[in-house]
Amino acid sequence: MAENRTPRDNSSREKTARMVYKPSSSLPDPTPEPGYTYRWIATHINGQAHPTNVSKMMRDGWEPVKAVDHPELMITGNAQTGNVEIGGLMLCKNSTEKVLAMKEYYDGQAQTQMDSVDNHFMRNNDPRMPLFSDRKSTTSRGSGFGTGSK
Domain count of the chain? Predict the structure, then answer.
């Protein structure tokens, strides 16, 4: 009896794509420029100017992006500087090569710290009750337990 039916989508329903809502981002993305990486840098925190953060980022090679260079952002820019600024954040760019070098440096710092923690942990190792420093996690489901059968 079920073999005589035709699928509903073939006979009575038009195939239409359902619209999916995606809220707009608070911080717009600039058009990518080859060889550069963009980042939003805090100029104000809790309403207070944060010049030390800005100067540190400038020393690291981050350059403010001018609003006239990115009209697709539809931002007039800071009246005094012309930089792209939104809510205490300033859009800056840096060469991708330098950003990757900074990432490599900080990854190395983090790895050194993790190695130090591991060495400190394993220093307390005792052969009678060995410590394990495996950084692997697994999940498993028990068989028979919790199935509701007695």
Answer: 2
Give the C-alpha separation, 83 to 149, whole Å.
Answer: 68
Per-residue confidence (pLDDT) for residue 143, from 0 to 100: 64
Report yes or no on 2 lying in a domain.
no
Reported pTM: 0.63
For the residues 27-49, what does the mean pLDDT come to? 91
SS3 track for 16-72: CCCCCCCCCCCCCCCCCCCCEEEEEEECEECCEECHHHHHHHHHCCCEECEHHHCHH
In terms of residue numbers, what domain contains 45? 37-94
